[in-house]
Structure of Two-component system, OmpR family, response regulator MtrA:
Amino acid sequence: MVCDDDQGILDVLQMLLESEGFTVFTEINSTNLIKQIHIHKPDLLLLDLWMPLLSGDQVLKAIRNTGEIKDLSVIVLSASVDGHDIASDAGANDFVAKPFDLDVIVSKIEKLLV
């Protein structure tokens, strides 16, 4: 599952990850994300850090405090200089800086799904 407030990034990630054989669900509105996780039960979440309404770190903290989804693997994506530290503090499994290299994302996804 991918959550980002930029439709262009959602489209690119969905197309590229599907071409790698992954099933991809997308969500543009971070306030809908936890509900969508319960519906789709993804193996992993790619989560943008800076989004309106609920930021990625707020969503991630909520995921980590929700029993049945607290162990979901989450890779945070961000162009923020201190994004890695924020992601780590919120409980992310990994971090990818924007602009990202798809090969790096695929390799980190594969590492977490093994």
